[in-house]
Predict the structure.
Amino acid sequence: MNSQRLSIQNKKGHKLQAFLELPANQKPNNYAVFAHCFTCSSSLSAVKNISRALTTHGFGVVRFDFTGLGRSEGEFAESHFSANVQDLISVNSYLEENYKAPSLLVGHSLGGAAVLVAASQLENIKAVATVGAPASVSHVKHLFSHGIEEVKQKGKVEVNIGGRPFKIDEDFVNDFDKTDLQKTVENLRKPLLIMHAPFDRIVGIENAQKLYHYARHPKSFISLDGADHLLMNEEDSNYVGDIIGSWVKRYFPNKEIEELDTNGEQVVGHLNIVENNFTTSIQTKKHSLIADEPKSVGGDDFGPSPYELLNAGLIACTVMTLKMYAERKQWDLKEVFVYTSHSKKHSDDFNLQTDKPTYLDFIEKKIKLVGDLDDTQRERLKEIASRCPVHKTLTNEVIFETSLIED
């Protein structure tokens, strides 16, 4: 996963702070836009967790701050509901011009209402997901109802919402009554996923019931049992992201994964030096993965390092070998954990008699065996762990042959 900071200008000229979350291979199959809750920001842990969970399903996700919130420019009084919808449309346009038009909108709380309205105006949006969304836009007015009468008298006042001061004016208040969300949802005619906590104390579950009733099929409802409105529990927000990612695949065309041709060999690796630092695509005949280097050495850390992959191959071979041996012996081996680390150590550390002292490759392997095993069995399994094929390859002399292939 990679996060890139963006600056997106809305129709009023304000710059909206945004972040683009990308999948590990930096090549999204589709793009999504996330709209945060009323008076929140894109830095809310739930927003980040849901966005990043979606990247594991191949999405590039833009999470951004509405006008006057977070680090976006403008005043909060300008962040009325219609302005939120316009901000969404501005972000949609930015993605369309600079990357690819988004196909999914996700909204949390009032952001859920905003994505429903924005989706009704954007043909490129193919599906919508809401989390804890109200069934009417005016639902949020109770949060600043204590200042509405004062606004009518003074024109602009400071109100306290959720323990924070915000300035609002009459246009801000009146705008929440302009949108008929029921009619919007009835006419949406796009796949809709409604997610809501049964005991949400901020936006009651009856709102989800109404939205579901308004919507036309295909529509789905997922209960977020035990979650709070802001999804402060990390497990809840990760669950939401995973569910949305799985649900929406039904409505998007299957995109063929671009595979590398192994040309008859066992494995192929490819690094596009122009586009990437060290991020390398690796392909076998049936499987693919990403390798990279950590950021400390100039990589992007999108995948395991070469030596981590070497360790992984040794670990996989070790546990599989132990499984087969224990099964053949009918021993009670239930689980195996293997921990390895690669480093360089001086030959003197091993008391080796060499003509020229030097640094040697050192792999430390630690094994945890789970099961009803006696000491003799454990010692035998320890010996077998050093006899797996990959272990033998690493300890034997290996002959390499390197050749160039013409373009």
